Amino acid sequence: PYYEFREVLTVRSADRDRFRTLDDLRGRRVATLGATLAYELLLKAESEHRIQPVVYEDDVHPYSDLALGRVDAVLLDQVLADRGVRRNPGLVNQDTKLAVGHYVGILAPENTALRDRINGILRQGMRDGTLEAIFRRWDMWNDDQPALYARMTGNDPTTAPATVDPAAARLSTR
Fold first, then answer.
1. CA separation, residue 29 to residues 46, 48, 80, 89, 171 (Å)
2. Of the given ranges (81-90, 100-109, 164-173), which has the lowest mean pLDDT?
3. In angstroms, rounded to a whole number, what is the distance separating the alpha carbons of residues 13 and 68?
4. pLDDT, tens digit, for every residue of 133-161?
5. pLDDT tens readout for residues 19-32
6. Residues 21, 27, 29, 31: is their CA dihedral positive or negative?
7. The whole model's pTM is what?
């Protein structure tokens, strides 16, 4: 993993105090992208909270539809949510972290040498600040990244460097 993200709800400013959690959205329409961690969360919320998932194929229309009142909230990665709010005045992101996921690169199983080289480059970028500078330039840096970098580079004495089992490469909630 080279980036850790949170799944967050985006709502209209007028609903900021009304819709803070998935349970608050019981019976409401909540937008997301298909085949994502957010989509999996909404499928679970569909049975637990009677939420009506509305699936999109891009990360622009969920937010514009929220601004227009076609859906009641959007659930997506904070990176996408921050951009959605910047594009649509009148929307806000809730602070509640509904899940955590990681951005990773996926290679064919036989590309172990390339995988190891990429991992080495990413870890070096974590150590020397290059990756942080890139994320700051694109306004993506946040307080979650230093702990991830410490785990990935072995600088966290309580946690061994993380590895991803290709057979189990799947985002999970925690």
1. 10, 14, 19, 20, 24
2. 164-173
3. 12
4. 999 999 999 999 999 999 999 975 444 44
5. 999 999 999 999 99
6. positive
7. 0.82
Using the CB atoms, write b or e for 139-167: b if 16+ within 10 Å.
Answer: ebbbeebeebbbbbeeebeeeeeeeeeee
Between CA 12 and CA 4 the distance in angstroms is 25
CA dist 63 and 71 (Å) reads 9
Q: In whole numbers, what is the pLDDT of the chain averaged over residues?
A: 90
Taking only the tens place, the pLDDT of each residue in 58-85 is: 999 999 999 999 999 999 999 999 999 9
Q: What angle do CA 124, 164, 107 make, to 5 degrees?
A: 80
Cβ count near 112 (within 10 Å) = 11
- State the Cα torsion 23-27-28-34 to the nearest 10°: 80
Please identify which residue in the block is written with the tokens 């009641």: 72
With bands split at pLDDT 50, 70 and 90, how would you rate the model's confidence at 15? very high
